[in-house]
Amino acid sequence: MYSVSAQTNDVEIVQVPLDVNNDFQLQPDKINEALSADPSIKLVYICSPGNPTANLIKKADIQKVLEHPTWNGVVVVDEAYIDFAPEGSSLAEWVNDWPNLAVMQTLSKAFGLAGIRLGVCFTSPPIATLLNSLKAPYNISSPTSALATAALSPTHQAVMQKYRDLIVAQRDRLVQELPQIPGIGRFRGGKESNFLLVEILDKPASEGGKPSNVIAQAAYEAMAEKRGVVVRFRGKELGCEGCLRITVGTEEEVTRFLREIRTVLGGLHKGESIDSVRGQVSQN
């Protein structure tokens, strides 16, 4: 969405890829090289935990960018999924020490309030003043304000934490049980969000299987079209060949997903067509 927003506002984009050979970690030296080469760059966007990589960016790497000796711009850290990461992972408190840092969070994920479209930005007073000068006078409605205030009360924060813990428990379950299914490859990235990025292989790993966009796409379509089990195909993104992004659900949803992905991959690895696999799954 960063690129979409930039293009909508006719803002040029300079991309510095994550390190696909190092769990999609930031490459701060390359970012700093880009900043030194082009002083017109004013914003650096970093997503932590990443999407679809589910990994936290190392704080030391973000600090390297913040410490650039000559660049005059703002580092924006998107922490939409931070509530699913270990305690102490957020950089929100860093805004007290780094005047060029802005940290964004949202009530859309762990709080389950995507419908009210409300986020928050932690930043230094000068940047906050600038943002308040740019926003619409009444950008938050009264219902949104009331719902957000209630959600952030101690009682409802405890409710959020309860459901967050249930999601983390099911995430840990997926980490343990998913690799036991023939045709499942490596987890890519990290495990600090409410989803996981996993490789789908062209045959079981014991038979030398390799990540396959064809099989991953077919598995995605077979589960979505007949069984209502929807994951996200991410095989066309850098370093994500053969990957599906799997959002963690309830215990019942995870059980159903594990059953369906096992059945679908079993059929595909036997050489069955996508249509026949769809039909087979729909009868189970």
UniProtKB/TrEMBL annotation:
EC number(s) reported in the record: 2.6.1.9
Organism of this sequence: Aspergillus indologenus CBS 114.80
UniProt keyword Transferase present: yes
Protein name: histidinol-phosphate transaminase
Pathway stated in the Swiss-Prot or TrEMBL entry: Amino-acid biosynthesis; L-histidine biosynthesis; L-histidine from 5-phospho-alpha-D-ribose 1-diphosphate: step 7/9
Cofactor needs: pyridoxal 5'-phosphate
InterPro entries assigned: Aminotrans_II_pyridoxalP_BS, Aminotransferase_I/II_large, PyrdxlP-dep_Trfase, PyrdxlP-dep_Trfase_major, PyrdxlP-dep_Trfase_small
Domain Aminotransferase class I/classII large: 1-261
Catalytic reaction list: L-histidinol phosphate + 2-oxoglutarate = 3-(imidazol-4-yl)-2-oxopropyl phosphate + L-glutamate
Domain of life, per lineage: Eukaryota
UniProt-listed CDD domains: AAT_like (cd00609)
